[in-house]
Each structure stands twice: as structure tokens, then as C-alpha cells.
Inverse folding.
């Protein structure tokens, strides 16, 4: 799990909660303040309205995977995956040099779908040009799907404040229509203000950061997949694992190269 995403979410919500419940003059803690920021009508307008509008904007099959899309924002970064993937590719290359059919024995243990599909093509003795074409097409599809996922999250982020403003207008209308009834002014004003708060929270605490995280991961994923593509093609050629490792390690960021070297050194020392 990516701790930065989780820590950022907790910190954002924590600061909002403290801003609501902490009294600074005099310094104290009043949990009762929180009840004033819960309003069922505002929740219906902002949460229900936003989800309904997103539902009307995208096909159902894409909406159903929103949970998985959000979960990806919390997964470990692709940079961390690259070291494990590079190590696995080198190990597979050792097996393939001895017997290409030996790949089948470890194929089901490959977690990365892109790598598993590429190795399956090698195992099936598909022509090299066709492997390149298939991997390129699959990578294009993956990037397109990532763009669609980010677009869904950004739609949530843009519609949240919009429905917050709709709730504000509803509250103001109710307020103006009942100026002769002082008891209705407070609830109407509360609805007007809290809906704006909910809309801003949806956008700036949840969906915008998640969309930004997936956008950053998209570039890292592309580098990971390019490394996998080259590794698969090297295995198809029957290249030595030392050469494959020497070339693919260049895909790693500098700090990851150092981590990979330290891991190799520790492994070699244990074997020795």
C-alpha cells in the first residue's frame, strides 16, 4: 500500500475535524460542534446528486469499476514494483535459456498481467514481429483505460462542488421564501452553507488527490510496461540473463538502482 495516499487522506480529514471541534479561545475540545456539520439534506443533494450525474455520464461497466480505480490510488507505487519485476524477468531468462518450455511451470505465479501475457506469447512460439505488435496494442489499451479511469475521478471532483452550489441555491431560495418565519432561516442557511462544504470536501480531499495520484502512476506504469516489453523480447531472443539485467536496470530511477544493487549484494552474501 502507498502510505502517502493513506497518510494524506487521514491528515486532511484530521485537520478538518480538528478545525471543527477544537476551540482555541479558550483552548479546548468540543466534540459537540461536529453535530452542526451533519445535514441529511445536504448529503442527499451533494453525494446523491454527484453520483447520479456521474452515472449519467459514463457507461455502467465503467462505473462498476470505480471501487477498483480508487483502490489503485492506494497501491504501492510502480517504482517499487519495478525491482521485483526486474528480478523476476532475470530469473525467467535463466529458465528460458535452459528450456523455453520451463516458463510454463512459473507462468501462473506471475502477478503482472502484461508480463504474463508476453511470456505466454513467447511460450507459444509466436513470431517476434507479432509479439511486438500485440504488446504494443495491449499497452495502448492499458494507457487508454487509465485515462478513462482518471477522467471518471476528475468528473466526480468537478461535479461535487457543482452540486454543492446547487444545494446553496436551494437553501437561499428556501430562506428568501420564509423570511417571515425566523425559525426556518437557520436551517435554510445551514443547508446553503453545508452543501458547499460537502462539495469542496468531495473534490479536494478525495477525488482530485486520487486522480492526481493515478495520473502520476500512469507515467510510472508506462516505464514499467516498457521494461517488461523489452524483457519479454530479450527472453524470446534467448539473451543471457546478465545482458538482460544490465540493460533493463537502466529503467530504474537512481534511488531504485541503488536499492537493487544493495538487494543483489545482500542476496549474493547470503548465498556465499
Amino acid at each position: 500500500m502507498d502510505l502517502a495516499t493513506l497518510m494524506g487522506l487521514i491528515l486532511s480529514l484530521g485537520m478538518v475535524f480538528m478545525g471543527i471541534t477544537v476551540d482555541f479561545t479558550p483552548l479546548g475540545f468540543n466534540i459537540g460542534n461536529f453535530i452542526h456539520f451533519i445535514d441529511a439534506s445536504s448529503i442527499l443533494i451533494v453525494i446523491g446528486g454527484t453520483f447520479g450525474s456521474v452515472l449519467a455520464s459514463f457507461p455502467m461497466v465503467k462505473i462498476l469499476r470505480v471501487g477498483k480505480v480508487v483502490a489503485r490510488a492506494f497501491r504501492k507505487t510502480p517504482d517499487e514494483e519495478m525491482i521485483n519485476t526486474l528480478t523476476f524477468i532475470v530469473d525467467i531468462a535463466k529458465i528460458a535459456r535452459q528450456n523455453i518450455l520451463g516458463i510454463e511451470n512459473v507462468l501462473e505465479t506471475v502477478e503482472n498481467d502484461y508480463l504474463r501475457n508476453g511470456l505466454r506469447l513467447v511460450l507459444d512460439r509466436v513470431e517476434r514481429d507479432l509479439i511486438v505488435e500485440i504488446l504494443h496494442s495491449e499497452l495502448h489499451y492499458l494507457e487508454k483505460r487509465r485515462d478513462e479511469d482518471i477522467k471518471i475521478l476528475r468528473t466526480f471532483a468537478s461535479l461535487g462542488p457543482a452540486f454543492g452550489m446547487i444545494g446553496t441555491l436551494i437553501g437561499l431560495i428556501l430562506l428568501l421564501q420564509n423570511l417571515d418565519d425566523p425559525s426556518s432561516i437557520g436551517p435554510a442557511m445551514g443547508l446553503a452553507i453545508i452543501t458547499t462544504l460537502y462539495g469542496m470536501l468531495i473534490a479536494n480531499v478525495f477525488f482530485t488527490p486520487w486522480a492526481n495520484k493515478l495520473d502520476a502512476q500512469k507515467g510510472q506504469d508506462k516505464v514499467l510496461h516498457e521494461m517488461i516489453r523489452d524483457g519479454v523480447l530479450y527472453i524470446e531472443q534467448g539473451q543471457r540473463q546478465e545482458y538482460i539485467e544490465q540493460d533493463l536496470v537502466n529503467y530504474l530511477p537512481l534511488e531504485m538502482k541503488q536499492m537493487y544493487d544493495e538487494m543483489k549484494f545482500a542476496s549474493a552474501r547470503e548465498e556465499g
User: Anything to note?
Assistant: DSSP finds ten helices and two strands in the chain. The mean pLDDT is 85.
